[in-house]
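Justification of computing resources. Each target in the renewal requires a structure prediction run like the one illustrated here; the chain below, 223 residues long, is used simply to show the kind of job we budget for.
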Amino acid sequence: MRRPVVFCDFDGTITMSDNIVAIMRHFDPPGWRELVDGVVDGSLSIREGVGRMFELLPASRKDEVAQYVFDTAGIRAGFAELLDYCKTHGIEFLVTSGGIDFFLLPLLEPFPIPRENIYCNASDFTGERIRIVWPNRCDEHCTNDCGMCKTTVIRRYPKEDYFRILIGDSVTDFEGAKLADLVFARSHLIAKCEELGVEYVPYETFHDVIRHLHTLEQGGVTP
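Resulting structure tokens:
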């Protein structure tokens, strides 16, 4: 019997907004829009684009940026309940995020998620500009220069041993969705799944996710 494990995105999934874009839009450093466009159209890798975006911001604004995200991000309804459901049913829960530690970890601090289960990018404020550090880079199976490579994390949980559940909202979750046994999708991830024929379950809140997991459990579908 395979063990269930959840890989959950952060920006736009756990939170209500895409925090990196929100940061750039709010602080509006010159040149950020071109970098976002480059990531979206694929001319820049996520690692290069995000790294260059944050280099536009002075390191001295760390606390201001973190506070802005803390005040505006919003946690999607049902998140605490999903964590309770996973704990009760023996489902391992991982956060797999392209977000940055200095604004992500304070938002997750109230929730009982072990630090080792949170995969995100790191940051360095010792210089004049914010520098992003990449502790979870792509393995030999991925050439997308992701920065925080979600498929690399997923591959550490072999399909033979784990029932892999992905929850996401954007095109950056799609490669992981192709590896998952069950995909919960919203927003841009739905469009990408439909475009390429990947099955998914739509959601708007984590209560939707819980209801579907409960239905599968009642039907004996989940491991």
